[in-house]
C-alpha cells in the first residue's frame, strides 16, 4: 500500500508538471516549437525590404530570446517574450540576399525555452511571411518549391543554410532550369556542389522554374524556396508578388493532405496546387468536390499540378510520401481588400497537433485563419480560450469527417486548442491588403518520419 501511494504521488507530480508548465509535454513533441532557429531573407528585387521577426511562446513564463548574425557583427541582442504576447523585431534591410551568391547573412535565434517563430518580408504591393522550423528537426534532403511565372523578369529562388562546418550540398537542377555560379553554367541533369561552413548561406536563382530541384547534403541544412516576384499560371491578372517558404525535409513528407482555397475571397481563380513526389512511380488520388482523379507520376521530385477554385477543398492521398504546395492566384478580391500570389505548404493530416501558439506576421492587414477540424470534436476547439461553436459557418469536406472555416483575427499572438485527445486540428494564417498577401502554416508535428 505504501509503494502504491508513492507511485500515485509521483504520477500526480508528473501530471501537474505537464498541465501547468507544459515543459515536459513540449520536450517530448518534435514540432515547429523550438529553442534554436536559423533563417535568411531573400531580396524581392523591386521594393525596399521590411524584414521582421514575430515570436511568441506557448509557455506560461517569460522567455529570453537572443537574436544575432553569427558571421557578422550587425546584430547581437536579447529580448523577452511572454505567453499571450507577440515579440516583434525589425531587422536591417541590408540583410536581404540578392540573386545567386554565397553569403554570411544568416540570422540565428536562440531561446532559453520553447518559442514559435515567424519571419516576414512585406512591402507595399509585395512580400510574404513564413513559419520557421527549429534546427532540431532539420535534415539532409529537400525538394525545391518555386513557380513557373508568366512574368519572366524576376527569378525563382532557393536558399540553404549550413548548421555544421564542412557541409556539402549537392544541387540537382530540375528540368529546364539554368543557374550560373562562379562563371560556370549549370543546367538540368548537372549537379552543382557547394561547400559551406557553419551558418554560411548559398542562394541560387533562375529565370526558369526551379521546382523539383533536389537538395542533398552530408549534414542537416535549413532550406527555403519561392520566387522573387511571380505571376502564377492560374492567374488571369498580370500582378506579381513575392512567394517564399521554409521547406519541409523529405523524411517528414506524408500520404494524406487536405488543401483549401481561402474562402475569404469573393472573386478570383483560387489556388494552384502542386503535389511533389519523393519516389519514382507514385500514385496520387485527388478528390475534389466528389470528383476523383488518379494520377501516376513516374520520377522522384516531379510534380502534378491542378487548379483549385475558390472555397473548394481537395483531399490528396498517395501510395508513397508526397509534399503539397498551394500558390494563390493574383488579384483576388475580399471586399475592399486585394490579395496577390502567396505560397504555403499544408501540413499532412498525421502532422496535425492539439495545441498551437502562433502570430499574425503582417501589419495593417486583414488577418485571418483558415481552420480545419474534425466535425465530431467541434465543441472541443478553443481560439484564444474561447469556444468555437457551430455558429461559425463551417463547410464539410466531402469524403471525410473534416470541416473548415475562415475566422478573422486581430494582429498579435493567438492560441488554438483542440481539447479532445482523440482529435487534432490545423490551420493556416493569412493576411491581405492592397495587392499584398501572405499565408503560412500555424505549425505541425515532426514526430513521424517516413522510411
TrEMBL record:
Classification via Pfam families: IgGFc_binding
Residues in IgGFc-binding protein N-terminal domain copies: 128-431
Signal peptide segment: 1-22
The UniProt record lists the keyword Signal: yes
Coiled-coil positions: none
InterPro entries, per database record: IgGFc-bd_N (IPR035234)
Entry keywords, A to Z: Signal
Stated name of the protein: IgGFc-binding protein N-terminal domain-containing protein
Organism annotation: Mytilus edulis
Lineage of origin: Eukaryota, Metazoa, Spiralia, Lophotrochozoa, Mollusca
Amino acid at each position: 500500500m505504501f509503494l502504491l501511494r508513492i507511485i500515485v504521488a509521483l504520477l500526480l507530480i508528473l501530471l501537474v508538471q505537464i498541465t501547468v508548465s507544459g515543459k515536459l509535454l513540449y520536450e517530448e513533441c518534435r514540432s515547429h516549437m523550438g529553442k534554436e532557429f536559423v533563417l535568411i531573407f531573400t531580396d524581392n528585387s523591386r521594393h525596399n525590404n521590411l524584414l521582421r521577426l514575430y515570436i511568441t511562446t506557448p509557455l506560461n513564463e517569460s522567455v529570453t530570446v537572443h537574436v544575432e548574425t553569427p558571421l557578422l557583427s550587425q546584430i547581437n541582442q536579447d529580448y523577452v517574450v511572454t505567453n499571450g504576447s507577440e515579440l516583434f523585431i525589425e531587422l536591417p534591410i541590408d540583410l536581404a540576399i540578392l540573386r545567386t551568391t554565397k553569403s554570411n547573412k544568416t540570422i540565428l535565434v536562440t531561446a532559453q525555452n520553447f518559442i514559435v517563430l515567424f519571419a516576414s518580408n512585406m512591402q507595399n504591393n509585395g512580400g510574404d511571411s513564413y513559419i520557421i522550423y527549429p534546427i532540431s528537426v532539420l535534415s539532409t534532403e529537400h525538394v525545391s518549391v518555386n513557380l513557373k511565372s508568366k512574368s519572366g523578369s524576376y527569378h525563382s529562388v532557393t536558399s540553404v543554410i549550413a548548421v555544421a562546418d564542412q557541409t556539402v550540398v549537392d544541387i540537382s537542377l530540375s528540368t529546364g532550369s539554368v543557374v550560373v555560379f562562379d562563371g560556370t553554367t549549370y543546367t538540368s541533369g548537372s549537379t552543382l556542389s557547394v561547400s559551406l561552413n557553419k551558418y554560411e548561406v548559398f542562394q541560387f536563382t533562375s529565370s526558369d522554374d526551379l521546382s523539383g530541384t533536389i537538395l542533398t547534403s552530408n549534414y542537416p541544412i535549413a532550406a527555403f524556396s519561392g520566387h522573387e516576384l511571380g505571376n502564377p499560371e492560374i492567374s488571369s491578372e498580370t500582378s506579381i508578388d513575392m512567394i517564399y517558404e521554409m521547406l519541409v525535409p523529405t523524411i517528414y513528407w506524408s500520404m494524406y493532405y487536405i488543401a483549401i482555397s481561402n474562402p475569404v475571397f469573393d472573386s478570383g481563380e483560387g489556388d494552384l496546387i502542386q503535389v511533389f513526389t519523393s519516389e519514382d512511380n507514385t500514385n496520387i488520388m485527388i478528390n475534389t468536390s466528389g470528383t476523383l482523379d488518379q494520377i501516376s507520376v513516374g520520377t522522384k521530385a516531379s510534380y502534378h499540378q491542378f487548379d483549385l477554385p475558390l472555397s473548394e477543398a481537395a483531399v490528396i492521398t498517395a501510395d508513397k510520401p508526397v509534399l503539397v504546395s498551394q500558390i494563390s492566384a493574383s488579384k483576388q478580391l475580399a471586399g475592399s481588400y486585394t490579395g496577390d500570389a502567396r505560397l504555403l505548404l499544408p501540413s499532412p493530416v498525421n502532422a496535425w497537433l492539439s495545441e498551437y501558439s502562433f502570430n499574425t506576421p503582417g501589419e495593417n492587414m486583414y488577418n485571418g485563419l483558415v481552420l480545419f477540424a474534425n466535425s465530431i470534436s467541434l465543441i472541443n476547439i478553443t481560439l484564444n480560450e474561447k469556444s468555437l461553436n457551430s455558429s461559425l459557418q463551417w463547410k464539410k469536406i466531402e469524403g471525410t469527417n473534416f470541416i473548415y472555416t475562415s475566422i478573422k483575427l486581430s494582429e498579435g499572438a493567438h492560441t488554438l486548442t483542440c481539447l479532445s485527445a482523440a482529435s487534432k486540428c490545423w490551420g493556416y494564417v493569412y493576411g491581405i491588403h492592397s495587392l499584398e498577401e501572405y499565408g503560412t502554416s500555424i505549425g505541425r508535428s515532426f514526430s513521424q518520419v517516413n522510411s
